[in-house]
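Page 37, continued from 36.
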């Protein structure tokens, strides 16, 4: 099937060609081309925006020093822009994590956010940065705060006949901007992503992506996290983040030990947390089944050592397996081939005999099959 491609050179010319939903805009083509190849979309015609110079570039706009990023600015340009510094470095960091060099040389910010894939890198970073989306139609231009732009799965505030023409960012402030994601393979869409923008004075803006139809963010959470970001402060304010978990959707990682489980276990144990930045190669990541098995083996070995050092007797320790929330008090005795499922607490002096599989139990006496 052949598709007519129009090549306007101005924004009004492009808008005049978008007469109905069967005619679609074409930005970098990284996503649109893949969707057409898979027969997910079959437009009657395409309006290429590549020759519209007004949609390109990163420049200071207005008297406050804020930035305007044209919708047709490619990922590689964003990834290398020195203008995205301080608190705005979160956007540059997200661009650097997109897919691979080929996609970064093709794809554009406007095209990416218009598709609104929940696992894409820009939405989460732009929410943390406090971006505003510029939308233009034949009737004029309007601006939409980024949190109101992403509405649902692959759904935005764009209406018929409208284009994203620019992304506006507040002035860069002294501070940091970080973006990290967990993906199944390097360069893939995020299973979970976290974007952080923080000023030197301690004002914090944080967003979580890949966990639902749109990035998760909360002014209340940002307010309680602001001020200082050391270990004690973060631990004491963890409840503000925990209260957002009802917004988390696990469909990107079904049947996996996932974000909600990790946060809940940490909170129940009163664990401390800290904000750190390091070389990605030095950070533990689980992006394959083999790495997951290695991480699980390391956890089990560490847990066995901790329990034995605390006064728990493990008979044939290498045959005993624990869940992350297993609690075993000192002087307990655990027989061989015992598996602890979720929600098990073993009291002081209790004995768990061989070949038990326990879940959701509080054990204070002898448990297990009779000896034969």
């Amino acid at each position: 099937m052949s598709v007519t491609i129009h090549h306007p050179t101005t924004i009004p010319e492009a808008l005049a060609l978008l007469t109905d939903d069967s005619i679609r805009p074409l930005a970098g083509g990284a996503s649109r081309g893949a969707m057409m190849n898979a027969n997910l979309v079959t437009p009657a015609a395409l309006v290429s925006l590549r020759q519209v110079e007004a949609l390109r570039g990163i420049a200071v706009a207005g008297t406050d020093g804020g930035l305007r990023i044209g919708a047709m600015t490619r990922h590689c340009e964003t990834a290398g822009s020195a203008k995205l510094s301080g608190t705005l470095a979160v956007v540059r960091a997200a661009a650097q994590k997109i897919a691979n060099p080929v996609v970064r040389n093709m794809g554009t910010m406007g095209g990416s956010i218009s598709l609104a894939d929940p696992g894409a890198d820009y939405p989460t970073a732009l929410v943390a940065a406090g971006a505003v989306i510029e939308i233009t139609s034949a009737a004029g231009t309007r601006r939409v705060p980024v949190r109101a732009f992403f509405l649902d799965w692959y759904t935005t505030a764009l209406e018929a006949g409208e284009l994203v023409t620019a992304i506006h960012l507040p002035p860069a402030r002294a501070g940091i901007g970080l973006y990290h994601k967990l993906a199944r393979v390097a360069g893939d869409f995020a299973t979970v992503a976290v974007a952080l923008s923080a000023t030197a004075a301690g004002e914090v803006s944080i967003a979580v992506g890949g966990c639902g139809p749109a990035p998760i963010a909360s002014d209340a959470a940002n307010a309680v996290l602001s001020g200082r970001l050391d270990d004690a402060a973060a631990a004491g304010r963890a409840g503000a983040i925990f209260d957002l978990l009802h917004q988390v959707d696990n469909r990107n990682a079904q049947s996996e030990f996932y974000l909600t489980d990790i946060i809940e276990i940490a909170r129940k144990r009163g664990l401390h947390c800290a904000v750190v930045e390091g070389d990605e190669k030095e950070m533990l990541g689980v992006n394959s089944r083999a790495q997951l098995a290695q991480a699980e083996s390391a956890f089990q070995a560490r847990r066995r050592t901790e329990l034995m050092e605390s006064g728990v007797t493990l008979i044939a320790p290498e045959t005993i397996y624990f869940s992350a929330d297993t609690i075993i008090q000192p002087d307990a005795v655990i027989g061989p081939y015992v598996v602890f499922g979720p929600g098990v607490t073993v009291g002081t002096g209790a004995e768990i005999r061989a070949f038990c599989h326990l879940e959701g139990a509080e054990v204070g006496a002898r448990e297990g099959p009779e000896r034969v």
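The chain is about 25% helix and 20% strand. Flag for discussion at group meeting. The chain has a mean pLDDT of 84.
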